[in-house]
Amino acid sequence: MNRRQYNWLFLIIPLIALAIWVDASKQITIPNPFNSQSSLIDRNVDIQLGLDLRGGLQVLLEADLPANATVSSDDLNVTRQILESRANALGVSEVVMQVAPPRRIVAEFPGLQDPAQVIASLQQTGLLEFVDMGTTPVASGTIIETDYGTSTSSTTTTGTPSGTSTSPTDTPSATATTAATATTNPAITPSPTATPAPTIYHTVMTGAALSSVNVQAGQLSGFVIAFTLKSDSSTLFADFTGSHINQYLAIVLDKRVISVPTISNKISGGQGIIQGSFTQDSANTLAIQLRYGSLPIPVKVVESLSVGPTLGAESVRRSLIAGIIGLLVVVVFMGVYYRLPGLIADVALVSFTLICLMLYKLIPVVLTLSGIAGFILSIGMAVDANILIFERLKEELRAGRTLRQAIDLGWKRAWPSIRDSNSSTLITCIILFWFGSTFGASVVKGFALTLALGVLISLFTAIIVSRTFLHVVLDTIKSTEHPRWFGI
Question: pTM above the 0.70 mark?
Answer without folding.
Answer: no
